[in-house]
Amino acid sequence: MSGALAVRGLALSRPGFRLAADIDAPAGGLTVVAGASGSGKTTLLRCLAGLEAAEAGRVTVGGEAWQDGAERLFRPPHRRRVGYVAQEAGLLPQRTVRGNLAYARRRRGRGGTDLEALARRLGIGHLLGKRPHQLSGGERQRVAIARALAGQPALLLLDEPTSALDPANAENVLALIGELRDTARMPVLWVSHDLERALRLADRLLYLADGRVAAQGPPQELLTRLDLGLATAPTAEALLDGRVVEHRPGEGLARVAVDGGELWLPEDGRHAAGSAVRVAVPAREVALARSPVAGTSLLNQLPVRATATAEVDGTHTLVRLAAGQAPLLARITRRSAAELGVAAGWRGVALVKSAGLRA
Amino acid sequence: MPELLSSADWQAFRLTLALAGVTVAGLLLLGTPLAWWLACSRARWKVAVEAVVALPLVLPPTVLGFYLLVALGPHGPIGGALEALGGAPLAFTFAGLVVSSMVYSLPFVVQPLQNAFAAIGRAPLEAAATQGAGPVDRFLTVAVPLARRGFLTATTLGFAHTLGEFGVVLMVGGNIPGETQVVSIAIFEHVETLEYARAHALSAMLLLFSFALLLAVYALNRRFQAVGL
């Protein structure tokens, strides 16, 4: 695939830590890199940027080899067409914002990026004449992202660009990453400390555990896989992609069509009718019944089929469900699971409280 | 004033300034890459190099001067090699003073530079690397501008420290007017010959000059701070 990132057998050893990664990330897709702290997320990104020299493995971007242990090929960072945004913006303090962008363009920009247009697109057009110390943390990170794009990278790496920011500034940068997802033509890998927010935007999820790629694929799939730590965590949730059908401003609700049915969820006016939304459905907000229930406050009832079950923390059963084709999770007590006879192949209804849903 | 400072005194003053200037220029040239290496390297024997660089801080100038005299003299390794190549040994010459002063003032230039380079942190340098800046490019466009206060401190300290040098000069250079007689030696000679007024005039001049130099640097440093550099 043109422009895609392919990593084969990437290996790096540090005292007490080993990274081993095989990765595929398509061009123009936002891949969120998740995993516990110490699982190697940052190290992986640094290896891809060439800032850490992995001992073995092959990294290609758009078919172009950046490193290949077998051929003793290793391109240093400045010979990789990479955009890298770290926790610290690392802007040059003696240069203006325009100067910082021009620095990257002069060294990388093939064909010359239009800095003014880029800055306007990223909402920093009014900052071009300022120096880094005159900017807020969020503005600095937006500039850092703009700078990474000014070099027209073939691969964009975002390493916790929002973790050092206050919520308002972080929101600002998250919105920018959301726009990037829709416009970027290169693979984008994003390590985020706020997985919940990141997954709302992710096309793909790369899940690391102890320096290994435990799983990679659509987040909807990985979040509901019972063999991964993501589904067994108490905060586990599934993602349903849908489309807003109507608003009921008077009731503060929106109706969203998802695979296998419709959901009512609290509406904050952010999503217009007809727009695509991704709904997070926490596993603990989902109850199960054999058949549709009458006389309930629950607004959402989706016909589902159980595809797998797993016991968690002694008292609960985690049920993986299929609503249409979309996977869903229910965290119910072992007793309820036994009484309903829930096992793979079981058919029934998932009951979901609207108040527990977020778009 | 003219009767207080003889032409020999003025000569000593000019010589001192020339010595300090050439020494600092040489030290910046050689000390900058050394400081950069010390700031970046993770080599195990780096600490040994750091210790050697710091030696002139603790050694009595006479010890330093003695070994420099031996090394630079006609029978020493450096002086001998120069003689073998058809040159002259460096002891009791201006060039010999420059070499000695560079050794003597080495830590005053290398240490501020090393600290300034280390304080930059890896973020700006790595950011520049991922923007396509090679090692030399990064050094010139990121490290040097960000370490400018370190350069200012290193230049001043190296210059001022060389101005005030006495023991090493006495050992290596002796007291040859116009060739190796610097202000500190001239003052010493005036005192020896009980010409207190001339010693006073030269001393006051050196005192005021050094104070003005440091004052200018501290003021400049404050301005850098104020604009966020």
TrEMBL record, chain A:
<keyword id="KW-0997">Cell inner membrane</keyword>
<keyword id="KW-1003">Cell membrane</keyword>
<keyword id="KW-0472">Membrane</keyword>
<dbReference type="GO" id="GO:0005524">
    <property type="term" value="F:ATP binding"/>
</dbReference>
<dbReference type="InterPro" id="IPR008995">
    <property type="entry name" value="Mo/tungstate-bd_C_term_dom"/>
</dbReference>
<dbReference type="InterPro" id="IPR017871">
    <property type="entry name" value="ABC_transporter-like_CS"/>
</dbReference>
<keyword id="KW-0067">ATP-binding</keyword>
<feature type="domain" description="ABC transporter">
    <location>
        <begin position="1"/>
        <end position="235"/>
    </location>
</feature>
<keyword id="KW-0500">Molybdenum</keyword>
<keyword id="KW-0813">Transport</keyword>
<keyword id="KW-1278">Translocase</keyword>
<protein>
    <submittedName>
        <fullName>Molybdenum ABC transporter ATP-binding protein</fullName>
    </submittedName>
</protein>
<dbReference type="InterPro" id="IPR027417">
    <property type="entry name" value="P-loop_NTPase"/>
</dbReference>
<keyword id="KW-0547">Nucleotide-binding</keyword>
<dbReference type="Pfam" id="PF03459">
    <property type="entry name" value="TOBE"/>
</dbReference>
<dbReference type="InterPro" id="IPR005116">
    <property type="entry name" value="Transp-assoc_OB_typ1"/>
</dbReference>
<dbReference type="InterPro" id="IPR004606">
    <property type="entry name" value="Mop_domain"/>
</dbReference>
<dbReference type="InterPro" id="IPR003439">
    <property type="entry name" value="ABC_transporter-like_ATP-bd"/>
</dbReference>
<dbReference type="InterPro" id="IPR050334">
    <property type="entry name" value="Molybdenum_import_ModC"/>
</dbReference>
<dbReference type="Pfam" id="PF00005">
    <property type="entry name" value="ABC_tran"/>
</dbReference>
<feature type="domain" description="Mop">
    <location>
        <begin position="295"/>
        <end position="359"/>
    </location>
</feature>
<dbReference type="InterPro" id="IPR011868">
    <property type="entry name" value="ModC_ABC_ATP-bd"/>
</dbReference>
<dbReference type="InterPro" id="IPR003593">
    <property type="entry name" value="AAA+_ATPase"/>
</dbReference>
